[in-house]
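Q: Hi! Curious about what Amidohydrolase family protein looks like structurally. Here's the sequence.
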Amino acid sequence: MRTHDVSGDMPALACDSHCHVFGPASRFPFDPQRRYTPDDAGFDMLRAMHRRLGLQRGVLVQPNAHGHDHAAILHALAHGAGRYRAVGLLPGDTPMRTLLELDQAGMRAVRYNFVSHLADATLADVCAMAERIAPLRWHICIHADDASLPGLLPDLAALPIPCVIDHMGRVDAAKGLAGEAFRALLSAGRASGIWVKISGVDRLAGGRPPYSDGMPFVRALLQEMPERILWGTDWPHPNVAGPTPDDAALLALFFDLCPDPALRERILVHNPQTLYRFNNIEAAA
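A: Let's find out. The predicted structure is below.
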């Protein structure tokens, strides 16, 4: 896996569609009920990484470690000059006035966890929230895995709003492209409003660089549903197996697997714009 700089080939307004901010805990404390305690990785650190890689936009995904307290993300949105959007973790009884305020701040989706170590939702929760956020033109974001994904997809495909599957569904790479979960994901993606993030290639590969086990899944998704694919770093890579991935190397790997500049621009610029509705801003260094 190459690690050289690809920022010179980056299309203007390219977006990291899956990243996080953690703390700093001295200012934005972690949730007492969190399942893990990450190191501080605040917005200034994230923005510096994006500048190094030539990424001008980002989507901040609320992590379990901050629970329902979105103070860290809201701070980032307020200081992001219109270049950042967010995905929240919201209770089902969140008042509509709060949803409207979050929409104004830059939130565009609600996320639900179905992976075994974070599972905190039901399909009923998802369907109820989808009805509530449809007028806002938001979408649902699902963090699932090989065990949970096949059973979820029929209902997710029937939602009245788009649904984004994080980290390529965290399918079991050992089962290959013919595995039940990945086949179901491709089928749903072809026939419905399902979107997929080609983030977490390291997770599919068990944390083993150069992440060869995850590459066939990226290629298949790029070929089958390019109009509903997003790319993200997953910075700062919470709860990963193996060494922490190098974000420049992950970006270079994406460029290798997606050599067509027009397709890269679609995935890095136009697809995120469709879902997250960034402000119209000029490209900036």
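A: A fun detail: The longest strand covers residues 107-113.
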